[in-house]
Input
Amino acid sequence: MLNKKITDLLNSQINKEFYSSYLYLDMSNYYIEKNLNGFGNWFAIQAQEEYAHAMLFIKYILNNSEKVVLNDIASPNKHYKDFKHPLEGSLEHEISISASINAIYAEAYTLKDFRTMQFLDWFVKEQGEEEKNVDDLCKRYEMFGTDPRGLYLLDAELATRVFNAPTLVI
Ligand code: OFO
Output
């Protein structure tokens, strides 16, 4: 059994993870529409990862015999002004998701909910990695993306990314 506040926060995190997936799918579609299929692939994999994260939260709540609440997922409804815009948007988004995970962690810490803290440890680390990956991509775009040949090579590299399911055991 979990504390009600923790359950509510975990349920709200499910929505944020599904929204993240939707947001990254929107970014993927944007790049594919612009014929940058490698960037499109990179974001499609981000979307898959976020979906997998939502499912981990669902599993954790169910394993603790609590009710999963699936709320409406907001439309990303974005208009991207240039190729860099989604990259910056995704960095900003990851920073906000890190803050959200940290807020649940802080609540679990206050309540001495060690089980939830242990579950969230993986996400704390994952957020650190995701922030770094997106930040790296922003920087590499800055360096190479404004030159057509550089953009072509970066796109080709991003096309090689494959999905690896999270290995977290709940
Ligand atoms: Fe769910 O991994 Fe970042 O947002």
